[in-house]
Amino acid sequence: MPSTLFARGSYREATRIADVLRKETVGGVLLMIGAFIALVWANTPWSAAYESLRDLRVGPSDLLGLHLDLSLGTWAADGLLAVFFFVAGLELKREFVAGDLRDPRKAALPVAAAVGGMAVPALFYVLVNLRTGDGALTGWAIPTATDIAFALAVLAVISTHLPTGLRTFLLTLAIVDDLLAILIIAVFYTSTLQVVPLLLSLVPIALFGVLVQKRVRSWYLLLPLALLAWVLMHESGVHATVAGVLLAFTVPVVRSDAAGGPDAGPGMAEHFEHRVRPISQGFAVPVFAFFSAGVTVGGLSGLGTALSDSVAIGIVVGLVAGKTVGIAGATWLVSRFTKAELDPELGWPDVVGLAMLGGMGFTVSLLIGELAFGAGSLRDEHVKVGVLTGTLLAALLAAVVLRLRDRRYRLVAEEEARDDDADGVPDVYQRPSAES
């Protein structure tokens, strides 16, 4: 294990992470706008129009035996989020194949924190709903996810300057979190399984993989295969977003030797990420938020009724307390059992603030809520209230803690930007102790 936790890593990786986070921040702002419009519309006299739009069914009802006459809300959850998880899969593979986290010792912390940040919220939710009955325990996975775009949007709003090490950790944590969430969805929220379509879906995924391994970038070849994989995965009963992750895992990260090898520039994964991320953050996620966040609260009395449901209480407790305990606790355990120490520029309040920031589980939490209780059901409405309330509380608490530390963060940011020799690389990355 490295002797230092939350070290800033290499300059190349820090630059890439900063670029990714800037794009995610823009996506987070659009996500917040989409959710805000949905909430306002759903609580006006025209709320019926919102529900009609969300439930409008489009698509062929019986094309070659396929059932694709889905509501717009379902198209957003099953279709658009497949794009989101495709990007998440690319990011994860990039980090663990060519990024700083290819070293298992460096990967241990974000992976442990992601596992802790999922296990503890789930445990808290189960404890709250242990005697509730009526299928409440089905929603155990709702508070387990972290929405990186929402978290970064909050950071932008409060104008805090997280050091590079913390930003890298937050992004990696959220990526691992997303992939664990999709695994949970595939294993625990697949109610019916059709084996033939599932096996057939592997054929276009394999063909897609063969083409990208040969460095084929032609969209007219790759896109039809991706769509076919999505359709077959959807028909199998496994959540169709799984297809996005599997497709992403087939994309090579580093350049081939014939193309110059790893040092010759961005590989296929970064090429696809560059092309698809704007679609994911600028369209797919905000549209999903628009169709999923619209809940008719019914004033203070309605809010009180929703929050009196133990399902909503369990979600709030899981997101606010569970995420904080899980992420910070896992980090402490890694430090305790590996004898690694925090970066000298950081302290445990920074870890707690970041753990609180992990309590914003908007996108994937809403998706799991729909899968657990059924889109549009009364309990799903309570899930939305719980997710929104827990996310808001986590954001407020994280903002307080991180703002109190922002003066320190500004000093670190100034140090990380200092380039006295004017060679284009900040001096902190050129010191003997800096990682290359």
Automatic annotation (TrEMBL):
Membrane topology: Multi-pass membrane protein
Main location: membrane
Swiss-Prot/TrEMBL GO biological process terms: regulation of pH
Residues that span the membrane, as ranges: 26-44, 64-87, 107-128, 140-158, 170-189, 195-212, 219-249, 283-304, 311-334, 354-373, 385-404
Stretches the record annotates as Disordered: 415-436
Listed Gene3D superfamilies: Na+/H+ antiporter like domain (1.20.1530.10)
Known catalytic reactions: Na(+)(in) + 2 H(+)(out) = Na(+)(out) + 2 H(+)(in)
Superkingdom of origin: Bacteria
Keyword Secreted: no
Keyword tags: Antiport, Cell membrane, Ion transport, Membrane, Sodium, Sodium transport, Transmembrane, Transmembrane helix, Transport
One GO MF term attached to the UniProt entry: sodium:proton antiporter activity
Gene Ontology CC: one annotated term: plasma membrane
InterPro entries, A to Z: Na/H_antiporter_dom_sf, NhaA
Protein's cellular compartments: Cell inner membrane; Cell membrane
Xref: PANTHER family: NA(+)_H(+) ANTIPORTER NHAA, SODIUM ION/PROTON ANTIPORTER NHAA-RELATED
Function per UniProt: Na(+)/H(+) antiporter that extrudes sodium in exchange for external protons.
Family affiliation: Belongs to the NhaA Na(+)/H(+) (TC 2.A.33) antiporter family.
Name the UniProt record assigns to this protein: Na(+)/H(+) antiporter NhaA
